[in-house]
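User: Can you help me understand a structure? I only have the sequence.
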Amino acid sequence: MQLLKPRKHVGALLAAGLGGLAILVFLMVGPPRLLAKSESPAFCAGCHVMEEQHTAWSHAGAHRRIRCVDCHLPNGGPIGHYFWKSIDGMKDVLFFHSGQVPERIVLSGHGSKVVQANCLRCHEETVSRMDTTRQCWNCHRQLQHRLTGTI
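Assistant: Let's start by predicting it. Here is the structure, written out as tokens:
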């Protein structure tokens, strides 16, 4: 009678953990300023699919002074930020290289929650006495990249 069952997947989990750690170390000390470059609006616009959004952002008044990641990624801490950055980045790469880029790019449900949370975080004092159950861009339509400049 065997009291302890051997764990078959420990080696695979260990390899995945070490691989993830190696990637993290490479990104932190690898190519100079790789993380900083990948968080710049120019990097986001490097994919021709995002040209329209980048052009609209560059004409968006006060918000053109902030980076794409300031609105579109969670900013509650580095773990969540880089976790979702990797998920969103891989999704974008897959869509682009598979030729499955939607004609009209829209926020996902998760993306909407992230952008809303970042609006409230940045404008905390302004919205402290407001009903924040509606999405900010329902009233501030010019924040939607396609509608920049509309009233």
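Now, to help you interpret it: The chain has one domain: 13-147. The chain has a mean pLDDT of 80. Let me know which part you'd like to focus on.
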